[in-house]
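pinned: reference chain
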Amino acid sequence: MKRTLLIVALTVGYNLYAQQKLTVCEPIKLKCEHLSNPLGIDIQNPRLTWMLKDDRQGAMQTAYQLFVGTDSIAVDNNKGEVWDTGKQSNGDIIVSYSGKELNPLTKYFWKVKIWDKDGKPTTSKIVAFETGMMGRYNWKGTWISDHHDIHHKEAPYFRKAFEVKKTIKSARAYIAAAGLYELSLNGRKVGENWLDPMYTRFDKRTLYVVHDVTQQLQSGENAIGVILGNGWYNHQSLAVWDFHNAPWRNRPAFCMDLRIVYTDGTEETIVSEQDWKTSSGPITYNSIYTGEHYDARLEQEGWNTANFDDSKWQGVKYRSAPADLIISQQTVPIRLITPFTPKSTQKIDDKTYVFDMGQNMAGVTHVKAKGAAGTVLKIKHGERLHTDGRIDMANIDVYYRGDKENDPFQTDIFTLSGKKEDEFIPKFNYKGFRYVEVTSSQPISLQDLKITSYFMHSDVESVGEVKTSSKLVNDLWKVTNNAYLSNLMGYPTDCPQREKNGWTGDGHLAIETALYNFDAITVYEKWLADHRDEQQPNGVLPDIIPTGGWGYGTANGLDWTSTIAIIPWQIYMFYGDSRLLKDCYENIKRYVNYVDRTSPSGLTSFGRGDWVPVKSTSNLELTSSIYFYVDATILASAAKLFGQQEDYAKYDALSKKIKKAINDKFLNRSTGIYASGTQTELSMTLHWDLVPEDMKDKVAANLNKKVIETNFHLDVGVLGAKALLNALNNNGYGETAYQVAVQDSYPSWGWWVVNGATTLLENWDLKAERDISDNHMMFGEIGGWFFKSIGGILPDADQPGFKHILLKPSFPSTLDQSEVTHKSPYGSITSKWTKNKRTINYEVAVPPNSTATFYPPANIKEQTNIQLSAGKHKLVFTLL
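pinned: its structure tokens
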């Protein structure tokens, strides 16, 4: 009782202090479709979201009112001529627009007025969103290309000059491309995006991008420049994935509208038409998979400026649109994020240098060089070195089937002009690498060679942080995030070098790590749209998405392609946003129905199994059937959420049938062992909640024993790596789980780190002969697990999006301090604790408009759940 009083006193005192510091509530972080002031909204019911800035104890929103209109002054005066919700007495912070029909190519202003916990109103600042084409028939431009076929190597350049005679109010460039593009105006690249548009199933869904180009236009003469790259649309390099046989394959093309609004109210649209000109240029070859070739001797200076003489350029030709659906790219762009200069340089000989960038990454290398005209630099990228110091490609070029002499893997070829210091950075390629080897056809001095590499990925905002007294924990968190970002290029990939494929298994195995650490909802909404495009009429999905046709094999089963259910559900858990789950609902049904038809017993062997295990092989029928259960359970929950009562009854019964079938066949009730009792078999059944309640203690004890037998080392593949730590931690063996997590000898995550890894690897064995990429995400659960264990920050399925937070931290005996933070849709959640002998000092920050429940771990004396309101709290516990 005294201990409880102390906790309450500390909490109340601390929060009274916080209340005195700030007594103002303000709505902030207003977003439309989870983007700030987006251009190109293509739907009639975009989501509007916000959060509260309010440090007071118990801070909450009691009501809100939205104002949307085309006149910013009217909106500022609380007049929403397009939509006024009226006062809504609830705490919602995500609302789907349901006002008057939105018009295409229109800017809408909006703000939110909220009432705080005391009923006092306050209003946000005004923000905006702009609608896009909202349909293919609002385009005025035509699809154009040059006159070459799919085998032509040189990248096509396009230009058009035009005149601006009036004062400009605003200008927007709308550009869709089959392939990749770089857009420039008056000699300068437009925006900071790279590799636009994102990779999709081009014959079903092609994306366009909107740029605000108001400041890049000038009075009088102007010029537009467009360069097209092959990307995944015209895959000229040969690899086992058959992208060169993709059904959509064609020479790159584009369509563009440059819409100018003048201050006098008139409009003008400069469009892609037959009056454009085209030519080749210095990009003599480009492949998203291998590299880019650039000949500086072929540069046409000023080609994208108004005064350039294009009399030698050719006309263009019309092309049909690649797909019926041309839709706005509503996701965060890929950008060059972090520059790296060499940590060390090794001179091999007068023609060859090897640079260590100090970080394995996905990205590109910017080269500046001087030399005689025609000097050829080969810029090779790799993850490993031979004993002689040169790059070893053996671990990453194993699936390449192309011309290694003329199209070398992960290698750019840069030919110097001899006229100046030449510059090159690939526009339509990226690589996975730590080391850069530059080999020149002529001797070159280091002073004439400057390189900078850029870590490149989807520009997602960081929303998570792990800081502890353990260097290994901190390093594991960092290398996991490096691997995740290296594999985020508009869709999650397996590796940035050997494949660049959107393997579905890697995607869902890492989803919690992704969402604890990054605001990535728009990336996953884009990728799940790709899933819907790729799904066969019978419900089957390929195990790489997007795909040119590869992946509809015999093993593309539930353990991989359960992305269709798991990712929408986790997005709902982390954001409280059910839009993606609703968009995928029928697709999940078709998928589950297919497996139900083909596996009427409730058991299935449709899957790949526990990929890349240490040594023990787990039962394929068991692991695949577990994911069948997971999908059926998610589908039943979604049906209930959306009021589909018949579906709920059907799929709830199916999930129970699958669970019974699994337990009837694989559970030995006398021993508490599933199948052969591997770490994977025991942990997956526990983690995915298949173990009967009366057997959980026995199965968990067996798992704990199994782990102790390996001296707290892993004996799992990718499926077990997802389940093991969670199963232990959630069933009374948190200390064991932590010992496994921080193990630093083989096989373990820490083994990679102590051996110098800066990203996660594809194989536990550093000397493995296959599955040996050094930058993979399939074992990435470890980064998210720290949030769930030592941080104990968990979403509540009954109040998702962290509207209510479940706090279940663990206090491992060998860890002295931990501070874990996650920026939820409601604001920052902090779970921080320090040990002082037998005392735990625990500090919690619960964001405004949210609440939390603290659940004590078994190793503290105080075993009472504690309800926490918004605000900061200090709690004190005694270790047993």
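why pinned: The two ends are 17 Å apart (CA to CA). The domain at 138-331 is CATH 2.60.120.260 (Jelly Rolls).
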